[in-house]
Amino acid sequence: MTARVAWIAVVAQLATTVVHADPAEDRALAHLDRGVAAFRAGDFAQARAEIAEAQRLVPDRPNPYRWLAMTEVELGDCRSALVNIESFLSRVPAGDPRVAEVIALRGRCVSTGTLRVDSVPSGAALHVDGGSPIATTPTPNLAIAAGTHRLTLAKPGYVALEAPLEVRATGVTYARYELIAERADRPVYRRWWLWAAAGAVAITAAGLTYALTRDGDARLPPVTCDATGCHP
């Protein structure tokens, strides 16, 4: 009889739990699951929208703050990420296994800035510190180490532009440059196509000279030399 009463009590407790389940938590979990899936698929804008909704529904839970911070770092928004990092750390004990990951994320944000570059006209290739082109203007948000960098913008028909730029940490550094068209009246000796044409002419001339010389030698009669001199 006692066992039966105990079983009835357990069933009643489970029923009470089901009746009083928080629908907001269920919705938050669904949003968080969709946000994590979008994050892993590389769709960071969608991930942020879903995870932010989960955070709104359960503002006391730490995990949405963690995922929001990771997503915002991928989007180049370190300023918002740092806020969510601190929100997460304030809601978990120091021994939580996720703390080390989040602290590392904070260190990455503190030493990284976000760069966005535009040009007039657009469509210029952006090089940073002499490297290969990494984007075309107008660029998306680019994560880059904080500090001074040398930018180069190159576009056919325009003079290449080089400029130093200080990239701030934890913020967005925006730069806009106006490119200068190459002048049609530049001295002829400074035009790249002239030297290309001159090189082609020189190569052609050398080839013709070689061919004519070789053929000419082949048509000459042999020369024989004796005591009276050299004769054909």
The second-level CATH architecture of the largest domain is Alpha Horseshoe
The number of distinct helices, counting runs of at least 4 residues, comes to 7
Q: What overall form do the CA principal axes indicate?
A: elongated
Per CATH, the class of the largest domain reads: Mainly Alpha
Task: Describe the protein's architecture and organization.
This protein is α+β, with helices and mostly antiparallel strands and 232 residues long. The chain has three domains: 109 residues, Tetratricopeptide repeat domain (Serine Threonine Protein Phosphatase 5, Tetratricopeptide repeat, Alpha Horseshoe); 67 residues, Sandwich (Immunoglobulin-like), CATH 2.60.40.1120; 44 residues. It is 49% helix and 20% strand. The protein is built from seven helices and nine strands; from the N terminus they run ααααααβββββββαββ. A four-stranded antiparallel sheet has the order 3-2-5-6, with no helix packed on it. It has a three-stranded mixed sheet with strand order 4-1-7. A hairpin with a 6-residue loop joins β2 and β3. The protein is elongated. It starts with a helix and ends with a strand. About 12% of the residues have low confidence.
Characteristics:
alpha+beta; four-stranded antiparallel sheet; three-stranded mixed sheet; Serine Threonine Protein Phosphatase 5, Tetratricopeptide repeat; 232 residues; 7 helices; 49% helix; Immunoglobulin-like
